[in-house]
């Protein structure tokens, strides 16, 4: 095995490294649909921004209609819904779970944290409750993606 590289190979490695660095510096856009009156939704948006996501919000009067438009089944509903990287994100999903989803790219509708569990991002409390992030499959079934 030789450690020498041709000039062409070196250029290819440099190009790949540069494109990876540029990709890592760009943030991923998240579009959130929420009620204008919900404070916990604003807190979740801040959680996502602190994790490096570029977040825009759309105040809507009908969150269930926005949820339906993303393809997320109603049974996984929460107080806000979002779109990122071709996936639906329902409720107070931790940013780390969204990052993992985007890295692994499973065939799925997206992630959901149904309801509003105490202790989830945006619902911080001194008395958190255990909750699961669900991976919602194209047929409407789900499996546990992460336990919190």
Notes on the protein architecture:
The chain has 148 residues and is α/β, with parallel strands linked by helices. The chain has one domain (27-147): Glutaredoxin. Helix content is 33%, strand content 25%. It has 4 helices and 7 strands. It has helices spanning 7-25, 39-50, 63-70, 95-104; strands at 29-34, 54-59, 80-84, 87-91, 110-113, 132-136, 142-147. Strands 2-1-3-4-5-6-7 form a 7-stranded mixed sheet, sandwiched between helices. The longest helix has 19 residues, at 7-25. Mean pLDDT is 86; it is low at 1-26.
List keywords for this structure.
148 residues; seven-stranded mixed sheet; alpha/beta; disordered N terminus; single chain; 4 helices; 25% strand; Glutaredoxin
Short synopsis of the structure:
The protein is an alpha/beta fold and 148 residues long. It has four helices and seven strands. Strand 1 (29-34), helix 2 (39-50) and strand 2 (54-59) form a beta-alpha-beta unit.
Largest sheet: 7 strands, mixed
Counting copies of identical and different chains, the oligomeric state is single chain
The CATH architecture designation is 3-Layer(aba) Sandwich
Give the helix level as a range of percent: 25-40%
Q: What strand line-up does the widest sheet have? A: 2-1-3-4-5-6-7
Rg, alpha carbons: 19 Å
CATH superfamily heading: Glutaredoxin
Q: Any idea of the CATH topology? A: Glutaredoxin
For the record, give the distance between the C-alpha atoms at the N and C termini, rounded to a whole number: 47 Å
CA-based shape: globular
Write the H/E string, N to C. HEHEHEEHEEE
Contiguous low-pLDDT stretches (5 residues minimum) are 1-26
Question: What percent strand?
Answer: 25-35%
Provide mean pLDDT, rounded. Answer: 86
CATH class: Alpha Beta
Output the structural class: alpha/beta
């Amino acid at each position: 095995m030789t450690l020498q590289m041709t000039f062409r190979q070196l250029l290819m490695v440099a190009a790949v490294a540069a494109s990876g660095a540029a990709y890592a510096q760009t943030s991923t856009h998240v579009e959130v649909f929420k009620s204008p009156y919900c404070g916990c939704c604003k807190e979740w948006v801040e959680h996502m921004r602190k994790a490096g996501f570029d977040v825009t919000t759309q105040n809507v009067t009908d969150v269930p209609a926005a949820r339906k438009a993303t393809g997320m089944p109603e049974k996984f509903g929460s107080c806000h819904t979002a779109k990122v990287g071709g996936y639906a994100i329902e409720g107070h999903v931790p940013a780390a779970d969204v990052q993992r989803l985007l890295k692994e790219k499973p065939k799925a509708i997206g992630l959901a944290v149904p309801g509003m569990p105490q202790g989830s991002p945006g619902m911080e409390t001194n008395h958190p409750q255990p909750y699961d992030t669900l991976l919602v499959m194209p047929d409407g079934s789900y499996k546990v993606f992460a336990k919190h």
